[in-house]
Amino acid sequence: MNDFKKYLRRVLIIALIIYVCYLLQTSVFSKYPLAGVTPNVLICVVSTYGFMKGRRYGIVIGFFTGLLLDIYSGVIFGIYALLYMYIGFLNGMFKKQFFGDDLRLPMILIGTSDFIYGVASYLVLFALRSQNDFSFYIMNIILPEVVYTLVVSIFVYYGILHINNWIEKFEKKGSDRIGNY
Q1: Residues 68 and 26 sit within 8 Å (Cβ to Cβ)
Q2: Count of CA atoms in the C-beta half-sphere (13 A) of 51
Q3: In this structure, are residues 37 and 152 in contact, taking their beta carbons and an 8 Å threshold?
Q4: What gap in Å lies between CA 91 and CA 65, rounded to an integer?
Q5: pTM score, two decimals?
Q6: Is 49 exposed, middle or buried (0-12, 13-18, 19+ CB in 10 A)?
Q7: CA angle at residue 164 from 145 to 112, to 5 degrees?
Q8: What's the CA gap between 29 and 40, in Å, rounded?
Q9: Cα–Cα distance for residue pair 42/70, rounded to 1 Å
């Protein structure tokens, strides 16, 4: 029963992080676009949990994050869930190279993930409708969004890292207390 409580606590905290980041992305940052784009905060969450916790976490968190986007703003239902799920899986492949204090790998992975997201969004949402100006889209939307996302992701990454370390310390302290009885 104790393991279930730990698992449930972790799931609720991750769900809260996803929800808060969704609200930030859709309300706060959409009010203050830079160069006509807003940062993709949810990509930061999926990528961070993917390479911090592994492929399973990346897939599950990516799926539910994408499903949240599909429910509230999806054009083709399920496309964001599938895309975020793959992004979480790809980031989860780098779990063994993850070191908490090193910022290089997270920034590279988050930037690459946002770039992949932008190209896939273009292919699904615009190229299928015969809007074929890819060079305009990449220079005016994808690359500025990647830069803005990278700036915001520094804060999101450290926030998630701090919360994850706090959860693990809390769980370890609880298991040490139980082992003493």
Answers
A1: no
A2: 26
A3: no
A4: 15
A5: 0.88
A6: buried
A7: 25
A8: 9
A9: 13
Quote the pLDDT of residue 181: 46
Asked if 117 and 43 count as a contact pair (C-beta separation under 8 A), the reply is yes
Q: What is the mean pLDDT of the chain?
A: 88
3-state secondary structure 20-81: HHHHHHHHHHHHCCECCECCCHHHHHHHHHHHHHCHHHHHHHHHHHHHHHHHHHCCCCCHHH
DSSP reduced 3-state for 9: helix
* 130 φψ region: left (φ > 0), alpha (ψ -120 to 50), beta (else): left
Q: What is the rounded CA–CA span in Å between residue 180 and residue 80?
A: 46
- Indicate the angle between helix axes 55-73 and 2-23, nearest 10 degrees: 50
pLDDT of residue 97: 85
Q: Which long-range contacts (CB under 8 A, 24 or more apart) does 100-109 make?
A: 100/52, 100/161, 100/165, 103/154, 103/157, 105/51, 106/47, 106/48, 106/51, 106/153, 106/157, 107/150, 107/153, 107/154, 109/47, 109/50, 109/51
Backbone angles phi, psi at 96, to 5 degrees: -70, -25
The per-residue pLDDT for range 70-105, each reduced to its tens digit, is 998 867 888 999 999 999 999 999 988 877 778 899
